[in-house]
Input
Amino acid sequence: MENDIHILVVDDEEDIREIVRILLESRGYQASCAADGEEAIAYVREHPEIDLVVMDIMMPRLSGVEATREIRKYSQAPILFLTAKTLESDKEDAYGSGGDDYLGKPFSQAELMMKVESLLRRYRVYKGKPDLPRPQKRLELMADRGCVVQNGETIPLTNKEVEILQFFMDHSGQVIDARTLYEGVWKEKYLPSATNTVMVHILNLRKKLEQDYTNPQLIRTVWGKGYQLDEG
Output
């Protein structure tokens, strides 16, 4: 039941906290608020059963990225970042800290609820069936809509995630190394630092598409060679 779902809203702007809280409660969720990263950490310590954290990035005392790194010591609940920082490097920092999805400000209520409901749905499946891997059916990539359909579920993707999946599908069955993937998707000359960029984006895709992203079955690592997409 939705009223069993507990969501923490973290933002230093009171108006935004209240808008998000009211919206979530209007959908039947239980919503609590924190004004900065330190409050968020303290709250999650006391409520490790939290189901979702909606986290601003730019806050005084402790940023959302820093808070997320600490929260990951206590909770695996999904974290949705709300932020005006939308550069690719900012997204990499956010995801690399343990975040699960990203929504740029300003955002619509429909966009927010789509992200919230998608993250909650995947988290409930993960919690409810930890030992039963989800059967991987063939992915249907809908690039023009910025999403992929898997097992009947529509999963929103970032533009870069769409491009990565498209690249894998265009090279079906092949093992693709980081250099080939980076130069094929980013259209830039590969440098050693680009390996981290590729790794972060692969991790984000796994978090969205895998039953257990720490034991990937869909986007597999072929050690010493690269990545391979198993579409099922």
